[in-house]
Structures are given as C-alpha cells and as structure tokens.
C-alpha cells in the first residue's frame, strides 16, 4: 500500500536554506521510493507576501502568521484520509507567534501522527521558549535534529525523552569532477587559487572577515581569489536593501582587492553551486553565531571535498575534528589568513583534509538521509520497512576499474589504484558478471569488449600446465606472491569463470568460445589433485555450467569425484550442532552448499542434496535475522566453539553476492520460494538494511564500498566489492522474473517488497 507523506515547510520558488533542504530531501525520497510513497507539500507563506500559485508538488499553502489559517489548515489535514504522516520543518521565524507559537496551536489540533525537525535548538532558552519547544516535542511522534549537540540539548535542557529524539545529519550531494583545471577555465578562474563561501548574504555571515584576511593572503599569493557566492537574503533585502553587500563592496575597494574578491550575486542552480565548490581550493565559513546548530552550506562544501576553514560554531566543532578542517575564532581575520596561508602552501595537507571531509560526509548523502527517514516513517506507522527501489545496473565503475590489460585490484575511494596491479580472482569474477549482464539485460559491443579483456587476462595467467597464476603487477609481471600463497582457490575461480562463459557462449564470437573451451579443458589435468574445499566448490560450479554447454564426458566424471571429496569433508567435520565442511565459517561460505546442490542436480545423489540443504540452513541461521543479513566478520570469522554474537564490522560484499548466488541456485533446483525471500533480504544489505543503516553501493559511481565496518563504511571501491555488487544486482533481475512467474502461478498480487 502506497503511503502519503505531507511536508509542511518553506519550499521553492521561495529562496531560503530550509526550502532548498526540503526540496533536496523530497527529491531523494521520490527517487529512491517511487511507487511506494506519495509526497505532498504544504508550502509556508512568507510574512507580508501573497501566497505563491499552487503547483505540484505543492498541494497546500498555509499562512503561519495567521493563527486562524493555521487552525483551518490542521482541520483540513485531519479530514484528508489519504495523508498518513506529516513532517514539519521548524525554525524560529518560520511561524508566527512568540517563538513560533502558531505552530503549537496547529499541532495541538492535529489528529495525524507527525514528525518535527528542529533546524535550530537554542542552548539558553527563556521559560517561554522552553515551554513551546517542550510541548511541540511532547506532541510529536519523533523529533529530528541534525547534530549530536542539538540532540544533547533537547535531552538535557528541554527534557525530551531520548527515545523520541532522532539524529539525522543534514543531507549532502556526492559530486565528482575529474578535470578541475578545465572547470576553473570554464568559470574564468584559470590558474588561480580559489577561496570561496556561499549562501544568502546577511550580516551574521561575517563575510568582511574573509575579505580582510585576503589582504595578507594576496601578499604571498597575488593570484588568489575569494568568491562570495549568493544573493542577499530576501528578508534582509526587503528590510534594508543591499546595504550589507554595498558595505562589502566598499571594503573591497578600500583594501584594493578588486582583482582578488569576486561577488556572484545570484541564487545559484545546484549544478553551478557544486561546480564552484568542486573548483574551490579552500572554503571559508565565517559565521558570527557560535550557537548556530547547522549549516547546509558548510556540509555541502565538505561533501564536495573542500579543505574548510570555519569559525567554531556547533556543527563545525563536531565535523572538523580529527583533521577534517581548521577551526578559527570569530571575527579574527588575522587567524583566518594564517590558516589559509598554511593550507595554500601545503597541497598535501589540503588533499588530506579534502579526503577526510568526503569520508565524514559520505554517510549523509541524500540517499542515506532518505533511507533513514523511511525507517522512521515505517516505525511510526508500525509497518514493515519499505526498501528503496532497485538502482540501475550501470557499468560506470566497472569500466573505470578496467584498463587495456584487465581489471585493477584496488581503488582509493573511486579512483583506480594501479600500485597493487591485478588479480586473476577479480578478472574471473568480472567475466562472470559480464556474461550475466548480457543474459539478464542485453548484450552489447561494450560488454563484449570487457568480456574479451577478462578472457585475455585469464589466458595470460594460465601456464603451460593448465594451472593459473593469480597476482600480476601493473607492468604485467607475475608477482612473487604467486610463490608464497596457496593458489588453489584462485585456480578454482578461474575454472568457474571459464565454465560459466561456456554456458552462455551464444553471446560470444565462435573463435572466442573455442579459445575458452581450450583453456577450460587444459584444467582437466590438475583438477583431480585439488584439496581446498572452496577450490573444489568453485570447480564444481564451473563444471556444472560447462555441462550446460556439453553434457556427460570427463566434466561429469570430474564433478562427481569432487563432490564425493567435498561430501567427505562435510562428514568429517559435521555433528549434531555443526553442519559444516570445516571447523570455521570464514569467507565465500555459501559456495560450499551451492556446489553440493549443483552436484545433486547432476548426479541425483540424495545424500548430497540433504548435505546441501542442511549446510545452507546452518549458514543462514548464522547470517540472517528476520529483518536483515549479518555477514560473517572477516576480523574474527566464526569458529566452531564460538558462542558470542557475530562481531559488528568486517562485512564484505562478496559474502552477500555468494549467498545470493547459492539461494538462486537452490530456488532454480527446488522451486522453494523461501530461497527467493532470502535473496531479497540479502540484497537489501546493499540498500541500507544493515547495522549502519547506510547504502553500501555508491549511487554516484555505481561502484560498491569495500566494507561495512563497526562505525563506518570503507570508502574505497575496489574490484571485488564492485563486481560482487553487480552480480548481486543482476541476480535481482532473476528474482523479479521468478517472483513474476510465482505470482502468476498463484494468481496473487506481487508482495510489496520495495523493489520496482
């Protein structure tokens, strides 16, 4: 059932920070939950101005300075049965009455459940302010704030119960510009060191501090320029005109800084704003208000990777710890200039701050903020969590990670890192993913070209014996690591990839198929000697898929022999409480029961099916709850004698993808719908259904983060995590097909699972 949410807020075309905030949040929620959520807007009118014409997504206007209109609006909402929940954006000054008392009158009459977000929480309220804020909080189902300090103030000063307070950081835009020099040239800033600030101008912004600091900065950096981005705040402009801007322009003339300070007097589009932030070398935040709780301009600058110098307002003290930026005193141009000169002279320090700022704000990208809001909405309405829609299966980061030779192993954030070269493992998995892409979506010359690269890389790693090397440096030399570690698992993955390619040979040229066939058959010589349980499982998978190309023969014989060996491992380790093939659950676990089920499907040995089902059930009991998947931590593994809950953190994409592959295989063979439900639940791990409640895939790059840690996400997006995410995402194409067939067979409507 689609839910309807009403936002009561200032909203564009009104020009104010909260209007922009609300629009960004609504856009993110619509993007991620379309089909499951209807959002309507009640736009707050400005004092002394006529209401704007109502047009979508605005459905209502309300005059917050007219108490009778507020009361009428509350009654109107009560009578609308379609509205399920209301979200109020609160700021002192948005609503009429002392401390916005008109809002309290409206809320006291409202029958609908509602959320209130306090954009400001005053640290030293008088009794009237405290009473209004406390009563609003008492009536609300949840109270949202955007800093930890604001949450603490609500608890300590306003006595709001902790379980009612939710901390959701201000949303941010992830935005990537790879060619900064070209961008600077586009904005007539070629060759300049750029300092900037943005936002609607008013006297409390302290822009004069930044201008005065420029007098010292230009002595060492005469080409430095300070951009003051944004028009004068409409309320200020209505009250006093352009007096403040004129005073700033006069100050620039007095200090002879006409070539070093540029005013961009416009309300910038989002793209233009993000462009300016991307080309900024240092962002200056000079607010005069130490009690300011939050600033959207501040977090947008951080998310753009700016090195930030800020006065010590509340949010800055929280965000700029641990070297993410510089804090300076209020109204102190000398200190500001000193900090800027240090950063301008130290590119490495600026880069370090930039990366730290990006890491600190990636958890608050708008997609994650929308996800958190939906979790709260589901909780208030006492219904199952609505999951985001399936993201598009784009290949941007796959392409970025692949050069002319093959797929690189690691990246620093989203930038490929050639230092560690390539692995057979990653290129084998990438080949499987490309074959899946051609099958589930559509073949293309681009996908075929990637397949060709990965096949060539696998061939490059194959020795005359038919075995494979795994590690290749950036110069194409085989690394000494190949002689230092056991390569059985890597060899097994290569067989899996080659066999899988043969099953989907129809998408490849005849010559390529013959080449893959030859390389696959060369493996028959060494396969019988394999001992590693996982290598055995990978090879069984490769043989299973090869048998779909050509049944019987040596491949079937090898598969049955390996299955007998894997079954023997299970018999040697399992007991009444431990249904597994080894004494620990480590990595790539699901491949073991999947291989046993495939072996049963080929040979029909009932004991193999029972082993497959018992071991997968055992694994799922350790890694699934009723609501989410909890991956085995790579920090501790899960040992036979473990009795404690699984450790938080150390969760990796590969475990989710391998589990989904196994569940898909089990469904295909047994037609048991419970495996489909587990597949859906497993994939939701990527969509924020995890202990951090954050996306694990990157909606900007379409890569996947390398790990879900205890308190943060590893921001690197290497080959293994990204390819495994793509495999998991492509499996959801199969899930949708399976679900459609199952639903038609039962003549039922599809279950509401949040995937469209």
From TrEMBL:
Gene3D superfamilies: Glycogen Phosphorylase B (3.40.50.2000). It comes from Chitinophaga eiseniae. Keywords: Transferase. This is Glycosyltransferase. Pfam families: Glyco_transf_4, Glycos_transf_1. GO terms for molecular function: glycosyltransferase activity. InterPro entries: 6-hairpin_glycosidase_sf (IPR008928), Glyco_trans_1 (IPR001296), Glyco_trans_4-like_N (IPR028098), Terpenoid_cyclase/PrenylTrfase (IPR008930). The keyword Transferase applies. Residues 17-172 form the Glycosyltransferase subfamily 4-like N-terminal domain.
